[in-house]
Amino acid sequence: MALAAEVPRGDPAAGRAAHDRHAQLRKPPNSLGDLESLGVALAASAGHSPPPIPLSPVVLVAAADHGVHARGVTPWPQTITARMLETICAGGATVNALARGVGARVRVLDVGVATPYTVPDRAPVAVRRAPVRAGTRDLSTGPALTVGEAASAMRAGAAETRAALDAGADLVVPGEMGIANTTAAAALIVARTGVPAVEATGHGTGIDEATWRAKVALVETAAARAPAEPLAALAEVGGLEHAAMAGAVLAAAARRVPVVLDGVSSLAAALVAVDLAPASRDHLFAGHRPHEPGARIVLERLGLPSLLDLELRLGEGTGGVLAVPLVQAAARVLHEVDELGELAPSSEP
Ligand SMILES: O=C(O)c1ccc[n+]([C@@H]2O[C@H](COP(=O)([O-])O)[C@@H](O)[C@H]2O)c1
Ligand SMILES: Cc1cc2nc[nH]c2cc1C
């Protein structure tokens, strides 16, 4: 896939330069702990030290529905996807509140919402309508998508991301809205990592134990069908929003723009992106450590340290948005802190 070929590796020399610079700043060595590692990773991603301070973050919320909803894997009606899309466009969802707090723009991309919705022309947040189909097919009975459909949704996510970057965005948070998508995310994670479904399947928005056991069995069976090729696996058990977020990851990584991940669905999408383009790993940052068990498996697999640990399980991009100030801080330190100069400790006691 052409998108994947465009992703450059991070530059270890830029990372080393940031590492060395931290040692020269007016503070004890390593005193900023994980923030220093974050600054090093940002420099490697950018290919430059100090890395740019990302002052124009964007959260791209990909929305879509899931045929597996018919299996009772979530307590919420499918129409909630459309209602929440309307809420996000009206500015009243959690992601809007958190985005306002950090000065992030919100963009909404419909890649397959099954229920009609209305967004007024003058809504605070516009929706870009690029539906591939009205939700996936039921992944428990056969392929959720054709490979062509998955590729279309991925291209739509990439195109929307490029549009955001062309408009000045310099950090991307892939977010999503899709009732039942924790089932697809778990199936994708099981398919790509080989972990048992019982370890990767969570309770999503809140299900009882009997429903959870049925969800685990369904995830196990579906993931076993998934082919080895990443896009084909995504088509077999994933969702349209997962494909769109994978496209967003690749499009941002291709321009060395940091991607701050959110919950289990964005992490499942990132796993596919890294399988398609291993270099994209060098531009990924985990905003937080989500509550969902599958998310934690992906963090481990990708070797991504999480910036926050708040037991979040909302999605929409919220956990990525919350971490934006930390990313800005890590870059800012490398730009603005004075050098040690005459404060350098002497080698004599
Ligand atoms: O981000 C997460 O880790 C997360 C965990 C649980 C639920 N969600 C959100 O809730 C919806 C999916 O939950 P469910 O139970 O319907 O599969 C979807 O809209 C996600 O944005 C998100
Ligand atoms: C109300 C609601 C809001 C959400 N935001 C992301 N997923 C969601 C799921 C529900 C049910």
TrEMBL record:
EC number, as in UniProt: 2.4.2.21
Keywords for the protein's UniProt record, in alphabetical order: Cobalamin biosynthesis, Glycosyltransferase, Transferase
Pathways involved: Nucleoside biosynthesis; alpha-ribazole biosynthesis; alpha-ribazole from 5,6-dimethylbenzimidazole: step 1/2
The keyword Magnesium appears for this protein: no
InterPro entries attached to this UniProt entry: Nict_dMeBzImd_PRibTrfase, Nict_dMeBzImd_PRibTrfase_bact, Nict_dMeBzImd_PRibTrfase_N, Nict_dMeBzImd_PRibTrfase_sf
Gene Ontology MF terms: nicotinate-nucleotide-dimethylbenzimidazole phosphoribosyltransferase activity
Pfam families the record matches: DBI_PRT
Keyword Transferase: yes
Reaction equation(s) it catalyzes: 5,6-dimethylbenzimidazole + nicotinate beta-D-ribonucleotide = alpha-ribazole 5'-phosphate + nicotinate + H(+)
GO biological process, one term: cobalamin biosynthetic process
Annotated region (Disordered), positions in chain: 1-30
Enzyme type, top EC level: transferase
Protein family (similarity comment): Belongs to the CobT family.
Cross-referenced NCBIfam families: cobT_DBIPRT, PRK00105.1
Function as written in the Swiss-Prot or TrEMBL entry: Catalyzes the synthesis of alpha-ribazole-5'-phosphate from nicotinate mononucleotide (NAMN) and 5,6-dimethylbenzimidazole (DMB).
Name listed for the protein in its UniProt record: Nicotinate-nucleotide--dimethylbenzimidazole phosphoribosyltransferase
Organism from which the protein derives: Egibacter rhizosphaerae
